[in-house]
Design brief:
Rossmann fold; homotetramer; globular; Dihydrodipicolinate Reductase, domain 2; alpha/beta
Chain lengths: 345, 345, 345, 345
C-alpha cells in the first residue's frame, strides 16, 4: 500500500481527495493536515467521512509528513504550495500539487499573473498533469502540476481542433460556467448561499488567472501561439463546469468529421466520453466522476465550430485528476479507484 | 380603468402578467382564459393569488372576451396566438402578443423557422415591442409583437455597439443562460426538478428559433445584415437570463468610452441600468423587475468587447415588457405598475 | 412624508426594509447606517437597489440619526439594539426594533436565554408587534418589539386553537423549517452555498432562543402556561418558513369546525389567508409578502390537530411585519406599502 | 457472477440500482426493462451511464427475463409489481421488490390503504427487508419486500426507544422531509423545477400510505400496537430524507443513556452511524450511500425525546437497501458493492 498524505485537507479539494483515496485499493492515508484543525478528528470537520476515514488532522510540517508518507497531494492555496513542496521533493516524495504553482513552463508568465516564484528550479521537472496530452511524461514524473479546473474543461474541448489546425486561432472564445465549489471552502460573503442562490453572473471577465494556463497548453497543442478570450461564470449549483467553446473554421467541416476527429484523438483515454451526435453534455451526467463529456456542433450559417465540454470541477477538475496522475506515476491502471458512477439525480 | 384580458393565463407568463396587472393602478382584469381550467377559480390553480385576484378561468373565446375587454394580452403558444388575434383586432381591441407570431417583418423568415403564418396581413401593422428601439411606434400601435426573452437580452446588450458600428459583424456571439421558467409550465420530463437541479447544459445550439429574431433586430439597428451564433443554456434556477455577448472591435476602445456610448444610447429609458464600472450584472439583482442591467468589458489582449446583460426572463423578458408596451400604447407613464423592487435575496 | 431611518441596513432584514420602504407612499428614507460601509453608496453594497434608493451609508450615531429621522427601524443584532434604542426614545423617535431585545415582558426570561438587559426600564412600554394579537396596543406604541420569525409562524398557527382551549397544552410541538436567509448576511462557514445546498438538517433542537418567546405569547393567548417543544430546521432555499404544529385535542373536532374557528379569529386581518380545505400552505406562495397562509388537518386516528403555517421569514417574519407595525403606529391603513404580490415562480 | 435483472429500470430507483450494480463485484446485469423504451440503449435514456453499462432496454416479460436472470429487482409501481413477481418466483428466481406490494403481513391493511392484493399467497413468505431488524430472516428469504423510504427513516430512528419501552406510545410523531426524487421520474406538474424550487410544503398529512407500514414495524419492535402521526414534507433538493421523531418519555433519560442504548441496539450493523453527541444528522452527509445517520436529543423541559435520522431516499431508502438485501440473500458480506463514500459537497 502506498502511503499518501493530503496536505491542506480541510477544503473541498482536500475532502474530494479523501473521498477517492478512502476507497483506492492501493493507498493508505497516513496524514491529513490543516493549520486550523490541528489535533481534531477529521470526522469532526467532515462528518460525512465517519466510519470511513479515522484520522486526526496534523500540522502541515513537511519533515514530519515526509517521514510518514511517500506520496503527497498538496491541496493548498497558490504560494503556500511552493513553500512546502521543495521539502517534500528533497525528502524523496512524489508530489501532485493542486495549486497553480507548478503548472507553468515559463516562470515569467506565472509571475506576471500570480506572484514571484519561490521554487523556480523545480519548474523544469514539473509535468503538466493532463494525461490526455502528457501521459508518458506523467508516468515518469516526480512532481506534477495538476491543471486548473477551467483549463481542463477548455483544453480537452479544443485540443483536437487545434491539433488538426481547423480553427482560426484569432477567433477562440471560452465561455465557461462553474458550480460554486470552485470558489473553495473559504468563508466569504460572495460564497454565501443567499448571495449565490437563484442568481447567475460572470466574473473576472478577461482577467481570470486561468487564461495564461489555457493559452500555454493550447499553444503547445497547436504548435503556434493561441490567444483566447476566457469568461468564467458562476452557476447556482455545487459541482460542475460546462465550457462552451467557439472558433471560426478555416474550411467547412461536418459534425461527423468532427466526431471522427475527436474519436481518433482520444482513442484509448478512458475518461473521455463523446456524446451521441445530436446530444450535448450536461454537468449532471459527470457528477462525482473523472469523466470529461464532449459534444460538438457546427454553425454552418456563421462558419463556427462549437465544442461543449462538461466535467465535475472537484473530481476531473481537481482531485480525481490528481488521483489519475498518481495512478500513472505509480504505473497502476489509470482508472484505479476512479471507477465511480455518476450520482444522478 | 382599462379593461384587460389575459388569454392563456395558466402558464408562467400568464401568472406573471397577473402579478403585475393586479397592482396596476389603471387596469381592471376582466377575463383570464385557459382551456384546461375553464370554470375553476384562478386561485385554485395559483393559490399565491388568493385575496389578490378573484376571478374564474373562462374559455378562450375571442368574441366573448372582446365584448368584455378593451386590451388583450395573448400569452398563448406560437400558432395558437395568430389563431385568435385577428378576431380581437377586428373587434377593435388593442393586443400585445407574447408569442413569436407577430415579431417578424418578413413572413418568409417566420415561416422558415416556425410554420405557415395564418394572419400575414397583420404583420405590417404589428410593432416589435422593444421600447428602447421603437418607443414612438409602440405608442401608436394597435398590435404589438412582444419580443422573445433571449432576444431582449441580446439586443439591448449589443444595440449601442452596432449602432456605433464598433464591431466586426462577422464576429458576434451571444452565449445566453436562462432560468428554467423559460421552458414554460408545460409538463415535460426535461423540466422536472430532478432533471434540472444541480446540472448545467447547452441546448438547441446554433438552431434556436430566437436566432432570426435577434438577427432581424440587430440588422435594423446596424443598418446592414448581422449574423450571430446564438447558444442558449439552462441554469438550475427559476428566473433570469444572463447574456454574454462577444464581438471583435474594428478599432480599440476603452471601457469608459463604451460606458459613455451606452449612457447616451439609453438616456431617458427608465428600465436600463448600467453597472458601475468594474462590476457586472447578476440576474439576482433584477428579479421580478423590468430592469435590464448592463456591464461592459474590453479584452484588449484579444481585441474583443464583451457586453453582459441581465434580465428577469418572465418580467423584462415577457410580461413586464408586455405591460410596459401597454403603458406606451395607452399614453401612460412608462413605469406605471412596474415600479417593483428586485426581490433580494 | 414620514422621515425614517434604517439602523443596521447592511443585512438581509435591512435590505428587505429598504425594498418595502422604497415604494411606501408615505415614507422618505433619510438615513441608512452600517458600521462596515460608512460613506459608501448603498447601491455599491446592494446593486439591486440602483435607480431605486440613492443614499450613502452613515455611521450608526443615534444623535445624528435622531436629528434627521422621526421613525427608526433598528435591524441590529441582539444587544446592539438595546444599546442605541434608549437614545432614539429620548429624542422622541418612534422605534420598531427587529432584534429580540424588546420582545419579552419578563426581564428574567430575556436574561436567562440572552444576556443582561441594559435598558430594562423600556420593557414595560414596549409592545409585542404582532398585529393579529395586539393591534390596538401597537397603534398607541412608541416602541415595538418586532417578533421573531419562527415565533410569528408558530403563534399565528396555534393562537386560535389555544384561545379556544382545544388542545392539551402538554402536547404541543412546533416543527419549523426555515430558508437560509434566516441566518442573516454574516459571513459564516455554515452559511456557505456548498454547505447548505442539497442538504437538510435540524439545529438547536430544544434549545433555540425563540422558544421562550413562543411560550410567552402562546401562554398569553391561552391564559395559562404553555410549553412547547420547538425544533428548527434549515431548508436549502433563500426565503420562507413553514411551521408544522401538533397538539392533541381535548375532544374530537372536524376540519370544518377548525376552519370556522380560524376564520372567526382572524376576521378583519388582511394578511392572514386560510387555504382552501384540502390544500396546504407552501412557502413559495407567500414569497416577498406579508401574508401568513394557514392550513388545517385533523388526524382522527391519533386524536391530533395539525396546523401548518407559511410565511416569508424576511417579509412577514421581519421587515414586512415591521412596516405593518409602522403603519399601525402612524394610523395608516395596515396594508399601505405592503400590497406586494407573491413572486411565483 | 450472479445474473441480475432490473425490472422497471427507467425511473430513479431503477437508475440508482444500476449505479450500484454496475460496480458490484459479484453481479452481472443481464436485463433492464422498460415498457416505454423497449429496444433503446440504456445510455440514450441515461447518458450518465455511458461507458459504464452497455445494454438495451427490453420488455418486462417475466418468462424471458427469468430465463436470463437468477435475481430480480422489481422497481415497478405498486400493483404492477405483484402482477409479475409470482412468475419470477415460480421460475425459481430470488426477488427484491421495491414496491409496497410485499411489505405487509396483514393483507387487510394492504388492501385498506392500497388496493386488492393479487398474490396474497406470497405474503407469508415475503420478508420485510430491513436488515437491522430482520437480518437472519432476509438471509433465508426468496422474496423480500424492500421497505418504503420514509418508513426506513422512521423505524431506524425509533426502534431502540420502542424496544426499550421508553416512550408513551400515544405520543409519537414522525415529521419527515424528503427530497424531490422521492416522487419518482413520472412527468407531473407538481414535480416541475419551477413548482418545487424555492418552496417548502407538507403533503398528504395524516393520510400518507407509509403510515401503516411504519406502524406495522414499530408495533412489531415494541410488542404492542403503536400509532404515529406521520407528516411528509417536500424539500427543494434532489435526494435525502430527514426524519424528526418525537415521543414523550415514561421516565426521564439522559442523552448519554440514549446514545448507549442506540449503540447497543445497532452494534454490528455497518450502515448505522451515530452522530457525535452535540451534533445532528444532515442529509448531505449520507448522499449516495446506504448509511442511516442518527442523532438524539432530550427536551427535559417538556419530557420529550427527539431522535433525528438522515438517509438518502434513493440509496438507503430504496436501491442501496435492495442491494444490501441481495447481499444477505446471497450470503455475501453486507457491505459488498455499497462501500460508497458520500458525495460532499
Amino acid at each position: 500500500m502506498l502511503k499518501v498524505a493530503v496536505v491542506g485537507a480541510s477544503g473541498y479539494t482536500g475532502l474530494e481527495l479523501l473521498r477517492l483515496l478512502a476507497r483506492h485499493p492501493e493507498v493508505e492515508i497516513v496524514a491529513v493536515t490543516s493549520r486550523e484543525y490541528v489535533g481534531k478528528p477529521l470526522t469532526s470537520v467532515f462528518p460525512a467521512l465517519a466510519q470511513i476515514v479515522a484520522i486526526d488532522f496534523t500540522a502541515p510540517d513537511p519533515e514530519s509528513i515526509a517521514s510518514q508518507a511517500d506520496f503527497i497531494f498538496t491541496a493548498l492555496p497558490h504560494k503556500a504550495a511552493m513553500g512546502v513542496i521543495p521539502a517534500f521533493m528533497q525528502a524523496g516524495c512524489q508530489v501532485v500539487d493542486l495549486s497553480a504553482d507548478f503548472r507553468f513552463q515559463d516562470q515569467n508568465i506565472y509571475e506576471q499573473w500570480y506572484q514571484p516564484h519561490s521554487a523556480p528550479e523545480l519548474l523544469s521537472q514539473a509535468v503538466y498533469g493532463l494525461p490526455e496530452l502528457y501521459r508518458e511524461a506523467i508516468r515518469g514524473a516526480r512532481l506534477v502540476g495538476n491543471p486548473g479546473c477551467y483549463p481542463i474543461s477548455v483544453i480537452l474541448g479544443l485540443a483536437p481542433l487545434l491539433k488538426a489546425d481547423l480553427l482560426d486561432p484569432e477567433t477562440i472564445i471560452a465561455d465557461c460556467k462553474s458550480g460554486v465549489s470552485g470558489a473553495g471552502r473559504g468563508v466569504a460573503l460572495a460564497s454565501l448561499f443567499c448571495e449565490v442562490n437563484e442568481g447567475f453572473r460572470a466574473y473576472k471577465v478577461a482577467e481570470h488567472r486561468h487564461t495564461p494556463e489555457i493559452e500555454q497548453e493550447l499553444s503547445r497543442v497547436a504548435g503556434y501561439a493561441v490567444r483566447v478570450t476566457f469568461t468564467p461564470h458562476l452557476v447556482p449549483m455545487s459541482r460542475g463546469i460546462l465550457a462552451t467553446l467557439y472558433g471560426h473554421w478555416h474550411h467547412p467541416v461536418t459534425e461527423s468529421e468532427l466526431y471522427q476527429l475527436y474519436r481518433d484523438f482520444y482513442q484509448g483515454h478512458p475518461f473521455i466520453r463523446l456524446c451521441r451526435p445530436g446530444s450535448l453534455p450536461n454537468t449532471a451526467f459527470v457528477k462525482g466522476t473523472n469523466f470529461c463529456d464532449l459534444g460538438l456542433r457546427v454553425d454552418s450559417r456563421t462558419g463556427r465550430v462549437i465544442a461543449v465540454s462538461a466535467i465535475d470541477n472537484l473530481t476531473r477538475g481537481a482531485s480525481g485528476q490528481a488521483v489519475h496522475n498518481m495512478n500513472l506515476m505509480q504505473g497502476w491502471p489509470e482508472t484505479l479507484g476512479l471507477e465511480v458512477v455518476p450520482l444522478v439525480p
